[in-house]
Amino acid sequence: MSGRGQGGRFRFRMNSDGxxxxxxxxxxxxxxxxxxxxFAAGLVPSAHSVASWLGVLGFCGGLYSQYVSAxxxxxxxxxxxxxxxxxxxxxxxxxxxxxx
Length: 100
Known about the structure:
Elements: E1 2-4, E2 10-12, H1 22-42, H2 48-68, H3 72-95
Helix pairs in contact: 1-2, 1-3, 2-3
């Protein structure tokens, strides 16, 4: 998942198996971005529709990304993104739902 690079710096590596996974990595990053944006928007009552839609997109996309993931770091990002998306969509629905 991670390791020490040159000079003792900490490096996060998505491809811990040594092979490239561009699609899986992109899906994992999109999942966590949707989840974090949905969570942040869910905290603002006037942004309920953004939180709701991005939360659903992040949740469904995250489930697919988890299904096709190849490495443990991808799975870790997927889980964080899925949970953040779920919380974001729950806050969005609580504050007003999908429509503005």
